[in-house]
């Protein structure tokens, strides 16, 4: 088949953290048929959706850009089952589903990622303790292997391929489409509660005692120490019922404000312990004067950072590293405390520190991140001092039996990977079967010796 509409060009690309850029060949097909025709012609490639993984998971010397494959194939508005191309964004799904009373069952902190990326990273949200991860709501997915074979798989058909692909960081093949069960909602509003905690014990106790709340997440003040260590603001909520809305409030509306855009890279060093301390103090104390309960739109509750376009430029040209780990529940309190104390001792601080409680993971998915416990996500400027700190945090997480999230990683070692993902060999075995010539490779897979 001629590749008449497939385009190729050279471009410097990186992950969202903007570290370790690569001069890559960007291949942009316009249909699934074109992708299949491409397979025999390429020596090495990795799928890339909207480029929002923080590290190097969707970075390679040749990438297949899926953003043109962004159509809804079928949407049953009665039962909420939707089939769509893998390149479509979560935001575009919501534009179609919310007016009909349906919402994606699991969402991360941004809508600006592709469905394929959501599956490849097996994303989790504020409701993992109740609803699991994204792939737990997929009926089936269709993908193309490194050899150009098209496979449709599910938990019942070729289940080993399905489970390896969910969380497999694009290494088993390129996802072409997926059929997903959406969540029924009465309104597009969220009934929210905001709780200010004085220290880490209060923060973690809230999660332990409020597992009945569907959505919950905590912002932590990473610079608070001594008796205030781990203080934070917990945002919790659920989809509002029609009966909770004020009279005359439309129940199902899209929230699409024009984002503020950071126009260029900020000077290196803008984000530092002084500016972070000022921000954290202001942010924490402002909630002393705000209502503890209320009804808010879904967008600020789920996707607050989407209101600031290109916010990653605030870290300057050297970029930033996001570090996300999960530690098991039995040692969770001690583990999170030790991590926060290590950050304080290093005097680096984290501009964003987000804590969530996770439910049980799925042992059938060899590279899926969640396990029952606490997950902490941290943003750091990319400096040698921070790299040394993160190596120390790896040691804590390994010792506690936890793991690092591959969708955020840009620097962990192979030994840390193997410690956190003991079933890695299952993924490698399936990849070799689907991709015997080892065509599908990313910078992440090379760095961690997966490929």
Can you describe what's shown?
This protein is of the alpha+beta class and 451 residues long. It folds into two domains: 72-185, Uridine Diphospho-n-acetylenolpyruvylglucosamine Reductase, domain 3 (2-Layer Sandwich), CATH 3.30.465.10; 189-415, Alpha-Beta Plaits (2-Layer Sandwich), CATH 3.30.70.2520. Helices cover 25% and strands 25% of the residues. The protein has 13 helices and 21 strands. The strands form five sheets. The chain has an eight-stranded antiparallel β-sheet. Strand 8 and strand 9 form a beta hairpin. Helix 5 packs across helix 12 and helix 9 runs antiparallel to helix 10 (384-399).
Distance between termini? 30 Å
What value does the Rg take, in angstroms?
21 Å
- Mean pLDDT comes to 94
User: CATH topology of the largest domain, which one?
Assistant: Alpha-Beta Plaits
Q: Indicate the CATH architecture of the largest domain.
A: 2-Layer Sandwich
Poorly predicted regions are: none
Strand order of the largest sheet: 16-12-14-13-19-20-18-21
The biggest beta sheet is recorded as: 8 strands, antiparallel
Give the fraction of residues assigned to helices: 25-40%
Number of domains: 2
Number of strands: 21
Give the CATH level 1 class of the largest domain: Alpha Beta
Shape: globular
Strand content is: 15-25%
Count of separate DSSP helical elements: 13
Structural class: alpha+beta
Distinctive features:
single chain, Uridine Diphospho-n-acetylenolpyruvylglucosamine Reductase, domain 3, 2 domains, Alpha-Beta Plaits, alpha+beta, 5-stranded antiparallel beta sheet, globular, 21 strands, 451 residues, 8-stranded antiparallel beta sheet
């Amino acid at each position: 088949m001629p590749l008449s509409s497939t385009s190729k060009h050279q471009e410097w690309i990186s992950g969202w953290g903007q570290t370790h850029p690569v001069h890559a060949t960007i291949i942009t097909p316009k249909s699934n048929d074109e992708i299949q025709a491409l397979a025999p012609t390429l020596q090495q490639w990795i799928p890339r959706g909207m480029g929002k993984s923080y590290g190097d998971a969707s970075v390679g010397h040749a990438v297949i850009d899926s953003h043109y494959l962004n159509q809804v194939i079928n949407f049953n508005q009665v039962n909420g089952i939707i089939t769509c191309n893998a390149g479509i964004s979560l935001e575009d799904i919501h534009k179609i589903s919310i007016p009909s009373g349906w919402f994606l069952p699991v969402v991360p902190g941004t809508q600006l990622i592709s469905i394929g990326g959501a599956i490849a990273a097996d994303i989790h949200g504020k409701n993992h303790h109740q609803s699991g991860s994204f792939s737990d709501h997929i009926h089936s997915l269709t993908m193309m292997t490194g050899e150009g074979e098209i496979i449709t798989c599910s938990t019942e058909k070729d289940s080993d391929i399905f489970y390896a692909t969910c969380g497999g960081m694009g290494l088993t093949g390129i996802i072409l489409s997926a059929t997903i069960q959406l969540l029924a909602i009465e309104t597009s509003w969220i009934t929210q509660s905001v709780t200010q905690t004085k220290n880490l014990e209060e923060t973690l106790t809230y999660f332990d005692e409020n597992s009945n709340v569907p959505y919950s997440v905590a912002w932590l003040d990473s610079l608070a120490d001594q008796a205030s260590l781990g203080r934070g603001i917990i945002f919790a909520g659920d989809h509002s019922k029609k009966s909770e809305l004020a009279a005359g409030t439309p129940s199902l509306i899209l929230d699409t404000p024009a984002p503020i855009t950071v126009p260029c890279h900020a000077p290196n060093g803008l984000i530092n312990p002084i500016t972070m301390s000022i921000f954290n103090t202001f942010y924490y104390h402002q909630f002393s004067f705000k209502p503890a309960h209320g009804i808010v739109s879904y967008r600020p509750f789920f996707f607050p950072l989407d209101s600031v376009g290109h916010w990653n430029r605030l870290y300057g040209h050297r970029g930033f590293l996001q570090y996300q780990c999960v530690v098991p529940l039995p040692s969770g309190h001690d583990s999170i405390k030790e991590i926060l104390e290590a950050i304080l001792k290093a005097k680096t601080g984290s501009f964003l520190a987000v804590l969530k409680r996770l439910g049980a993971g799925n042992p059938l998915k060899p590279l899926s991140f969640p396990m029952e416990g606490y997950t902490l996500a941290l943003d750091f400027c990319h400096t040698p001092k921070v790299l040394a700190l993160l190596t120390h945090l790896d040691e804590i997480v390994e010792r506690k039996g936890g793991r690092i999230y591959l969708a955020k990683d840009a620097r962990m070692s192979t030994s840390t990977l193997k410690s956190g993902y003991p079933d890695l060999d299952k993924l490698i075995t399936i990849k070799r079967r689907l991709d015997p010539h080892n065509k599908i490779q990313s910078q992440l897979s090379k760095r961690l010796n997966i490929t």
